[in-house]
Write a structure and sequence with these properties.
Radius of gyration: 23 Å
Largest sheet: 6 strands, mixed
Helix content: 25-40%
Shape: elongated
CATH architecture of one domain: 2-Layer Sandwich
Number of helices: 9
Oligomer: single chain
Low-confidence stretches: none
CATH superfamily of one domain: ACT domain
Distance between the termini: 54 Å
Strand content: 25-35%
Structural class: alpha/beta
CATH class of one domain: Alpha Beta
Bound molecules: prephenic acid
């Protein structure tokens, strides 16, 4: 049986994302994104679930950097969840009593406007996750150490599950916000799911150093093959100022000719390309087909070249 880990504690959105894929399997809650990634890397877990990007606050640096460095890992599935937040307090606490509010930095960024309007003087206390903030209030309620804050911004389920009161619901500034989570594994047999016809491929590309046009050259590999990028982010490579790698998601599966050829092209023009998985797109809903070459065009071109090489002429 596969061993699962998720960015915990119990009650995080990451747990909800994992549970939407595997409802019942035992899973270990890890205290951070780094610890979840490390559990998979070390073999303590086979699959780990972590957030990778939010529609409002963008990429989750710990996940992007964890995938770019260290022993390679691959994404085997993605989950997209709507995110909505509540302000949770110990029973009996009124809004006027809330002087400090704690939550994960990505969640804080999504409720800043609400806090400015309703709790303009409240101090922000960073927490390792939304659920960790709620858990600290529940621990205080049970007679444990003071949490160090009166309000926690967390998922409605976390507040309910811990016996906290909800002072305000739907406090996110942008209705309809979503977070994308990834399930990670060590690479190996069976970790590239079969193509479904609606897949995504993730890569980290390290450009050739100090070369004018290096990024354009890398992007051309996708353009000329009619491949749509769904995300591109630069992250510091970490070895020197001015050195970046590019975390990229594109449409398509590594088994498709166009994606395979783009990967070979990137390999030719970059210092290093890290393959981070091909996996089904969450929820389907592929964007309209582009006007570039089709898989049939790629197959026809390959057949034509094979015939030339066999001496059949053009
Ligand atoms: O703290 C959690 O509950 C998480 O799963 C992390 C996380 C994130 O880092 O993006 C997930 C979704 C929300 O956008 C806020 C926090």
């Amino acid at each position: 049986m596969l061993r699962y880990a998720f960015f915990g504690p119990v009650g995080t959105f990451s747990e909800a994302a994992l549970r939407s894929v595997v409802a019942d399997a035992p899973a270990v809650a890890m205290p951070s994104v780094d610890a979840t990634i490390e559990a998979v890397r070390s073999g303590a877990a086979d699959v780990g679930c972590v957030p990778i990007e939010n529609s409002v606050e963008g990429g989750v640096p710990a996940t992007l950097d964890g995938l770019a460095a260290g022993d390679p890992l691959v994404v085997v599935a993605e989950v997209v969840l709507p995110v909505t937040f509540v302000l949770a307090v110990k029973p009996g606490t009124a809004l006027a009593d809330v002087e400090r509010v704690s939550t994960h930095s990505h969640a804080h960024a999504q409720v800043r406007g609400w806090l400015r309007t309703h709790l303009p003087d409240a101090l922000y206390v960073p927490a390792t996750s939304t659920a960790a903030a709620a858990q600290a209030l529940a621990d205080e309620l049970a007679g444990g150490a003071p949490a160090g804050f009166e309000g926690a911004v967390c998922a409605p389920t976390a507040a309910r599950g811990l016996g906290l009161d909800v002072l305000a619901e739907r406090i996110e500034d942008r209705a309809g916000a979503q977070t994308r989570f990834v399930l990670l594994s060590r690479p190996g047999a069976g970790t590239v799911p079969a193509p479904t016809g609606d897949d995504k491929t993730s890569l980290v590309v390290f450009l050739r150093e100090e070369r004018p046009g290096a990024l354009v050259e890398a992007l051309e590999q996708f353009v000329t093959r009619g491949i749509n990028l769904t995300r591109i982010e630069s992250r510091p490579a970490g070895d020197a100022l001015g050195r970046y790698c590019f975390s990229i998601d594109c449409d398509g599966h590594v088994s498709e000719a166009r994606v395979g050829e783009a990967l070979m092209g990137l390999h030719r023009v970059s210092d290093h390309v890290r393959f981070v998985g091909s996996y089904p797109r969450a929820g389907g809903g592929r964007p309209p087909a582009g006007t570039g070459p089709t898989e049939d065009d790629f197959a026809a071109a390959q057949g034509w070249l094979d015939r030339l090489r066999a001496g059949a002429g053009s």
